[in-house]
Write a structure and sequence with these properties.
Blueprint: E1 3-6, E2 9-12, E3 14-19, H1 23-33, E4 38-45, E5 60-62, E6 75-78, H2 86-93, E7 98-100, H3 109-123, E8 126-128, H4 137-148, E9 152-158, E10 161-162, H5 164-171, E11 176-185, H6 187-194, H7 203-206, E12 207-215, H8 221-229, E13 239-244, H9 247-253, E14 259-268, E15 274-283, H10 286-306, E16 311-313, H11 328-335
């Protein structure tokens, strides 16, 4: 294995693989390059590997050859889309590797978790699923805030920004050549929450979705619009706007991927006082931030694997101390 120096000692690096080579994968590749304790060993693609040039210089390999690397990779970063890729790729890949992914179809997480858990336990591997910012980091905040203020109401707000999962879902629609989707929070509802509201808001009240779509030549734009707006789990519960643009406009106006959001909870303590807690974040690149989160949880997956705690986990199941490059004493000294 490759070695790196930690406090004057040579330590073994985590040997990583990347499955899929799109936006998330390229961001994971960059995150690994900035992590002293992880080395990238292989990149797997469903495209012709001879036509894939990686930023790191690691040679791309055909995805169906991944099992040949089962003794050369400690953790596989699963970088496919949640709509069509991960439900197929996750259960198959965890037969050979510990995995981490950012599966983000909220309503399907329990089903996906059970499926991965069964396969992971059978193969004696560890999988950390849905390790993005929401689900993921936001999930941790929602759990924490509701535990601190059980007598209250909480809401999560996304955006304004580009949703990778929803953009990918649109690109799966027949007749679509490219797409970007923006999630936009309702400022009135957000303001009400910041002013102490304990109302229950519907999904439609909290957000709207704006889609920019490139249609293939001859595609039925009316049909595409209908399929998008009626898509369950992604758009059917929202007011959704679909705009058709040229490939040039999509690239020129919608190539950046900023995002952010807020987790808010309003409640009352046992003494009757009203309290407001809020977690907020804003970032320039959705895939870059998601990759940073996946990288931290890859460390946790390997620690669980070393403890023989096989099976699938979510971010709610993992101690914070497992995410860091620092040891427990170092974390306590710096953060407590």
């Amino acid at each position: 294995m490759n070695k790196y120096e930690k406090r004057g000692e040579l330590m073994e690096k985590i040997r990583a693989g990347i499955y899929g080579y799109g936006n998330i994968a390229r961001s994971v590749e960059n995150a690994i390059s900035k992590s002293a304790d992880i080395s990238l060993e292989a990149v797997f693609t469903r495209r012709d590997p001879n036509k894939v040039i990686t930023a790191s210089g690691v040679k791309a390999t055909a995805a169906d050859r991944a099992p040949e690397f089962k003794d050369k990779i400690d953790i596989m970063f699963m970088c496919g889309g949640s709509a069509a890729d991960l439900p197929k790729q996750g259960p198959e890949t965890v037969r050979y590797f510990n995995i981490v992914d950012s599966f983000d179809t909220h309503a399907k997480i329990p089903e996906y978790l059970d499926m991965i858990d069964e396969r992971a336990k059978k193969s004696k591997k560890v999988a950390v699923i849905s390790a993005g910012w929401d689900p993921g980091l936001f999930s941790m905040m929602k759990s924490l805030f509701s535990s601190l203020l059980p007598d209250g109401r909480g809401q999560a707000f996304w955006g304004p920004g580009v949703s990778q999962g929803h953009s990918d879902a649109i690109r799966q629609v027949e007749g679509v050549a490219g797409a970007v989707q923006y999630t936009v929070p309702d400022e009135k509802v957000l303001s009400e929450m910041r002013n102490g509201s304990e109302k229950d808001y519907t999904t439609r009240q909290k957000h709207r979705r704006i889609c920019y779509v490139v249609a293939k030549d001859g595609a039925d734009k009316g049909k595409i619009t209908k399929v998008i707006k009626e898509m369950p789990y992604y758009f059917s519960d929202y007011d959704t706007e679909v705009n058709f643009v040229s490939p040039e406009e999509l690239k020129r106006e919608h190539s950046r991927m900023p995002h952010g959001g807020n987790v808010i909870r309003n409640g009352r303590t046992s003494g009757g006082g009203a309290y407001h807690v809020e977690f907020s974040m804003k970032f320039d690149s959705n895939p870059d931030f998601t990759a940073s989160i996946m990288t931290a949880f890859a460390r946790a997956a390997l620690k669980l694997y070393e403890e023989k705690e096989y099976g699938a986990r979510t971010v709610l199941d993992i101690p914070l101390s497992y995410l860091s490059q620092k040891d427990r004493k170092g974390q306590i000294a710096e953060h407590l």
